[in-house]
Task: structure prediction
Amino acid sequence: MQIIQTVAELRAWSREFHRSGKTVGLVPTMGALHEGHLSLVRTAKAACDGVAVSIFVNPTQFGPNEDFALYPRTFDADCTLLKAEGVNAVFAPAPEEIYQSGASTFVEVAGLSDRLDGASRPGHFRGVATVVAKLLIAAEPGRAFFGQKDAAQVAVLRRMTADLGLPVELVICPIVRERDGLAMSSRNRYLSAAERRQALVLHRALNAVDALVATGERSSEALIAAAHANFATEPSVRVDYIAAVDWATLEPVQEARPGTLIAVAAFVGTTRLIDNLVVE
Ligand code: AMP
Result:
């Protein structure tokens, strides 16, 4: 497994595959890898000849009062996991490699970037869109793999790749959960034992919504109310948003339809967690 630190080397690595008619997949991550990330890696390995995983804690997607400095960095353990999956290359650039001094170009997906997580984390999706665009331009993958867990991010990136005409297929992989239902996240390691239990309310609330949808309920208001009722049983958890939206536009919908995204975000202690379901 090759460890690559520069854009030039990454592009050369990718072009080597392309020269021999082989396909390249890219899995962008911020490291602190867990089974959720590895499910993306396995999907990529099954679909592509060469797989690169990027590990980059992207400073521009963190707000001034967020956890950029604290974000877990476990590079050696990450590499051991990726090697065992047969990953071909790890791209681990220094921040200066991605944001050269004087850089003043950003990718802004207007509208979408201000909804859901973008509403509570101003500038977050501008940072995400910018770094993913840079990674796609550097690695030139035919496919790039993302998790449904970050559903608003998926909407932003789909819009961005379509608008910029980037020649890449985005492959969206299902949410991987702990045995008790908590969506896996690098941030789960911030939770105390008590918070870890409280965090289950996100999944419980979504299960309640799912059960209601199964009875035929379609009113977003009723579905959102059911989720809020669940959160009320865990008063120490502060809801950031509960929303029923069109997954492409992230605009609220009155009636849930197949493809409607029901998304939640909540603070468990100081840790902000997200989860979602897509109506079938
Ligand atoms: P991150 O390192 O948090 O930026 O995540 C990197 C990629 O892994 C993103 O596309 C995430 O959506 C995806 N991911 C994170 N957690 C999960 C999970 N529990 N299940 C599936 N994909 C995930």
User: Anything to note?
Assistant: DSSP finds ten helices and nine strands in the chain. Residues 29-30, 36-37, 39-40, 146-147, 149-150, 173, 175-176, 183-186 surround adenosine monophosphate (CB under 6 Å). The two ends are 39 Å apart (CA to CA).
